[in-house]
């Protein structure tokens, strides 16, 4: 995660990187989020980006806090012809503002590492996804956000230890219930009741999702995810372009 400013600069000038009019930088990049903002990032169209109509945004990042009406904050664009790289190498995407102004571009460099560039093509940070240890099961996914222009990195683990312990303990019971409901769904399907069959198949137990990004060893949370594809941004020092990129990659990672 330690990279020199010369490396960032050289990578930012690689062919194919978008170039836009320069914007005023600050120690953490630019355009920080307010003291607290709640955003929502849907994931269905991200998984089906190759079927999105040309010219349409792949996903819309919206406000989701109290007193808001779901106003759009940014739009995510994924090229339709991008190969599906899986969780360790999502396709490249760009993020634009409500009026179409370029905010950032994100591209994978492999092995769960993503570089984030600003609208002017300058690097603003690096996001890394790690699958965790093989043993003991289950593996907890680790995320980290490293600003390019200084500032402490943020680290997060998906799910708490207690939540994963409970999940593991009740998993056998879940599989028994799932088998019973699957059998009931098959019976409804044989009887021609497709709606009832869908109801039986819709129930599932999700693994723990609570994720908090914060400085290693620090008590302050910069980004928090609990459920519902909603993210609470609580640090005024956090560049919202990095927060948007991390939220998109995180929700894309969800099943």
List keywords for this structure.
255 residues, alpha+beta, 12-stranded antiparallel beta sheet, disordered N terminus
What is the averaged pLDDT score? Answer: 78
What letter string, H or E per element, gives the SSE order? Answer: HEHEEEEEEEEHHEEEH
Q: Residue ranges: pLDDT <50 for 5 or more in a row?
A: 1-30
> What is the straight-line distance between the termini?
27 Å
Question: Strand order within the widest sheet?
Answer: 9-8-7-6-5-4-3-2-1-12-11-10
- Specify the structural class: alpha+beta
Task: State the share of residues found in helices, binned by percent.
Answer: 25-40%
The total of helices stands at 5
Strand tally is 12
Overall shape: it is globular
Major sheet summary line: 12 strands, antiparallel
How large is the radius of gyration? 20 Å
Strand content: 25-35%
Describe the protein in words:
This protein has 255 residues and is an alpha+beta fold. The protein is 25% helix and 25% strand. The protein is built from five helices and twelve strands. The chain has helices at residues 5-12, 44-47, 161-190, 194-202, 240-253, and strands spanning 37-40, 59-63, 72-77, 93-96, 102-110, 113-118, 123-130, 142-147, 154-157, 211-214, 221-225, 230-233. Strands 9-8-7-6-5-4-3-2-1-12-11-10 form a twelve-stranded antiparallel β-sheet, with helices on both faces. Helix 3 packs antiparallel against helix 4 (194-202). The chain is globular. It starts with a helix and ends with a helix. Mean pLDDT is 78; it is low at 1-30.
